[in-house]
Amino acid sequence: MPGDERSEKQAAAQQAVDILHEISTILNCHLDRRTLSICISMIENGVNPEALATVVKELRKEGQEAQIESSAATARRR
Amino acid sequence: MSNERGPRIANAIHSLIDHLVPSDAHDDSAEERHDACFQLARSIFERPGSPAISSDVNHASDLIKRKLIASNPSQALRFANLYTRLLSLPVLNQKWAILYLLYQLSDSPDPNEPLPLSPLRQQPASTPAPTAVPDDEAFNDAFAPGGLKKLPPEKSRRGPEEDRSASRADYASPKAVRDVSLKSTLLADNSLEIDPSETALLRDLPFTLQGLSSTTLPFAKETSLRLPPTLPPPIISLLHTLAEPSLLYRGLSTFVKSPAKGLLGQSLRAAISNELRNYLTLVATLEGQIRRALSELDENAPRGGIGKAGVTLKRCVVWTREATMGLRLMSLIAEESNSKQGGQLITLIHGFSNSHGDPVVGAFAERLLADVTRPFYDILRRWIYDGELSDPHLEFFVREQNPNTEDRKETKAKGQASVWNSKYEVVDSMVPSIITADFAQKVFLIGKSLNFIRHSCGDSQWVEAYSKTSSKELRYGDTATLETWIDEAYKTTMQRLMELMTTRFHVFDHLQALKNYILLGQGDFIALLMESLAANLDRPAGAQYRHTLTAQLEHAIRGSNAQYDSDEVLRRLDARMLQLSHGDIGWDCFTLEYKIDAPVDVVVTEWGNRQYLKVFNFLWRIKRVEFALASTWRKCMTGARGVLQTTDDLVLQTWKSTRGVLAEMIHFVGQLQYYILFEVIESSWTELQKNIRKPSCTLDDLITAHTKYLTSITHKGLLGARRRQFQDHHQPSDPTNPHHPEQPSHPSSEDRNSYMIQLSELLRTMLAYRDSVDGLYSWSVSDFTRRQEVDAGVSIDDDGLDGSGGNTGAVKSEFPALQERLRQLGSGFRQRLQILLGDLAYQPDVDMRFLGPVRRKSKAGGSGGGSASAVKA
């Protein structure tokens, strides 16, 4: 039954994400589940993990800068 | 990335950006930012990744584990758990990559915390990321994560380095704008072209490391490597460092092939060749790395692109460093081992493992030791469980004694050699330092006892059963268990041996019998023997026949309590004659003998037998003198009522003094006997009993106690040698003797056995005196008959009177000579006795003073018939 298989697979995937999330917590990676699952799917699609790590770091920096800027902007707007 | 996957990844990137970079919907700058981010991500992905990352799932997990152990050990266990669970899941094909990603992201700063306001970041960050890219690469070049990841896992030392490089790469980007990148590019641009090129050197390096010649790096001789002269000094120094393991390997591989002198030498070679195999594995890995790096070389890059390949000469130096240390240590051991063998070899390696400051060296030597000691423990096992010494190359610390050495000959000459203490010996220099001296002694005793039980006691069945039940595999490592095992073996063997000696070989019965018969403990037997033999022994030695002697012995046994002794004992009792010399009479040659056979002869050795014989002969002589004196005394006493009655005052006076001296002699002999039998033999016997009845008594203890027993008997029994020296040596420190200044230290001209000689002089004097008394007695008897004849002769014819008158003259003339001789002998006896007592008074041994006078006064009063009382009662 394909449906069963599928749900089984999904459960396994869910479990994998759980485990990996736990590992990432141990390692202080500061990844939330969503980011993690995006990363996993990217890697499963053949993305180089090292590059992905760089990207995540870069994007975080961007995000922080954006936050600073937006907070500055709201301060200016006032 | 395949085309089909492209859009999926793009989608993923978009969602990632959306998630990580929060954007306000109304802000159009957000759109721009999104695009910029997307471009950035794209460019990063497009870039070719580092090729050398191993796609092994274990590798990534190892990295994480190591990191966790370093920072947070409790989490490491949890990680290991999660990791196994992850592995068991059927989904996910790229588990290693995910783990690797997590590893890369580990300990990254929390994205929710605001960024520190660095001045660098304040300027418009249009292109910081792209510049960061080459910097990262430069750092990766410098610290080589790619290459290092390939090393065998045993090189744990690499872990921190890895961490360091990774963490540096983490914060590389902020610093990147500064001169680090400049310097590295500068270096890359300005590198010299060298001949032969580093690539060529690298290609040949694996061969060199295996000790094989190659075109660029040929081995000139057995112990030297020729370096190409065209190279610049830095490369030369690198090659010098690399040449060390190569040369050491060459030396060691010849050592391994050289023939070994012994089993331990063989095992050492085996252990070293094992280590060399490990080294070759390392070289093979290295070769693989080099091959791979060389195949990916970009010919057009600066320095032949070697900087990017991940393998350089420098790295090779680093990778071979630990192996070089191992090789160095091994070649040191190999060199030293030529002059050492057996236990010394173990001591040598053990010295490295426990006294070398470097823990790496210690651990290495320990590992080596486990292999090297194997034959040693095999020998040890055979020794303590089978009692067999299987040591063809003389490597064990127990060794069969060489019968030709000086020591051995000496003990043999002394008669102290026996199967027990002359078969094996401990060689102190061969006791390895993994075993203490006590322990070695114990091991020695165990094996010796087993061997003794098997070969001398004929109880090999027990030994076999024992070795079957208790044999254990011994190996280097836990000394505590080994010690308990050996203690156990020691206890069992000793117990068994003592049991055998007591029950099967009746050692204690024999000792008792020796005391009873040889040391005259069995009074009734000796008295009977002497009585029955007396008439026989008065005849010359040549007229003694063995069968009469044995017949009398048998008679004495049957007639005394000795008949109740066991057959085992009586069978061994024998009477025989010593070697006779001219003029001896039976008394001088007769001796009793107690035959001791193996294995009891380890306790009562030949030497011991001689001591027993010596004591017996001495006692026998005293006994004989006593017996003779007593019979003469008896004769005189009965005679005094009859034949000896006379009216002649002179004769009466002579008889009176003669009886006085005779009484003195009897008293002295009685005292001497009492002293020897009770003060000496009995007390030593008690001591011996006390020592050998201990539950923990071993055969060695028994032998020692018995030797001590005999020594104390001969020493205190005035038979010991070296009395004078002994006394001189001790006198100054003897506080109980205030007279030592006036006691001139007798010159060494005095005989060593002076007590012995004095005593035999005394005994001889007594015998001579007794002969004279007998003479006097017969004179008196003949005088008495003459007087009776004279009384009766009044009625007899004159012829007879004439004849008897002539007789009277002859008899008369005999009397003064007899009188003179008796007086001489009597005074001689007194003098000798006084000298002896004087000597005894200064004996350091308290027991020996029992024989001497208690006070000096009584010694002075020893003259004039009081001498006998001077002999302390």
Descriptive key words:
heterodimer; A: 78 residues; mainly alpha; 3 helices; 85% helix; elongated; B: 873 residues; two-stranded antiparallel sheet; two-stranded antiparallel ribbon; 6 strands; 2% strand; rod-shaped; disordered C terminus; GCP_C (chain B); microtubule (chain B); cytoskeleton (chain B); GCP_N (chain B)
Query: Total number of helical segments of chain A?
Result: 3
How many DSSP H or I helices of chain B?
A: 38
Strand content of chain B: under 5%
| Uncertain stretches of chain A | none
* Largest β-sheet summary of chain B: 2 strands, antiparallel
Distance between the termini of chain A: 61 Å
Series of secondary-structure elements of chain A, N-terminal to C-terminal: HHH
Helix content of chain A: over 70%
* Percentage of residues in DSSP E strands of chain A: under 5%
Structural class of chain A: mainly alpha
Q: How does the overall form of chain B come out from the CA principal axes?
A: rod-shaped
Rg of chain A, rounded, reads 18 Å
GO cellular component, one term (chain A): spindle
Function (chain A): Required for gamma-tubulin complex recruitment to the microtubule organizing center (MTOC).
Family (chain A): Belongs to the MOZART1 family.
Subcellular location (chain A): Cytoplasm, Cytoskeleton, Microtubule organizing center, Spindle pole body
Descriptive notes:
The complex is a heterodimer of chains A (78) and B (873). Chain A has 78 residues and is mainly alpha-helical. Chain A starts with a helix and ends with a helix. Chain A has helices spanning 2-26, 33-44, 49-77. The mean pLDDT of chain A is 79. Chain B is mainly α and 873 residues long. Helix content of chain B is 67%, strand content 2%. In chain B, helix 7 crosses helix 11 and helix 31 packs parallel to helix 35. The longest helix of chain B has 44 residues, at 649-692. Chain B is rod-shaped and about 180 Å long. At the A-B interface, helix 1, helix 2 and helix 3 of A face helix 1, helix 2, helix 3, helix 4 and helix 5 of B.
